[in-house]
Amino acid sequence: MKKIFYITLGCIGLGLGALGAALPLLPAFPFLLLAAVCFAKSSPRLHRWFIGTKLYKNNLESFVRGQGMTVKAKIRIMTIVTLTMAFGFLMMSRVLVGRIILACVWIMHIFIFLFAIKTKKADSEEAVPLICKKLRVSGMRCESCARRLECAFDSAGSFKAAVDFHENLATVYLKEPVENDVLIQLVQRAGYQVEQVWEAAS
């Protein structure tokens, strides 16, 4: 039942996100983020399909790789969303249902940006990673595999990874020492195998 709920919610987010990519009054980002989260929780197959779409690549991929947004970026986007929707709200003075829908969408946007999206420090304030490890990975067949592996590391919370599909290489940045077995298990859970692990200069 829970899986069906997440899939349904993810499909709704995907549909609204696709509309938002085409309509100026309906920003796509929050809805696509909702779809990504719901698909990741419910269906690996849907999640893999979604992260391979142009809709994901053009609107969400850079955010996912960045592991969050700075306060400045959040304020900028929320301001744009608020001004855009305020204009639409004023234009719909005689359409009560339209105003209600816009108000609900605006509240949803603000809620997602405040509570669902991780806030990260500005680049100048971030601690420099202490350790950089490289993993030779086998089993990846396309760019989607590389993105899937990056998401696997990102979801662990304490890692930041960049995966090069052509080189079969994953570069993982660590803020504290981690056993190689932990990294290997993350790769294996994503469906791939580690052939070699070594520490590199960060």
UniProtKB/TrEMBL annotation:
Coiled coil residues, start to end: none
CDD domains: HMA (cd00371)
Location of the HMA domain: 131-195
Keywords, alphabetical: Membrane, Transmembrane, Transmembrane helix
Organism: Diplocloster modestus
Keyword Aminoacyl-tRNA synthetase appears in the UniProt entry: no
Organism taxonomic ancestry: Bacteria, Bacillati, Bacillota, Clostridia, Lachnospirales
InterPro entries assigned to the protein according to its UniProt record, in alphabetical order: DUF454, HMA_dom, HMA_dom_sf
Name under which the protein is recorded: DUF454 family protein
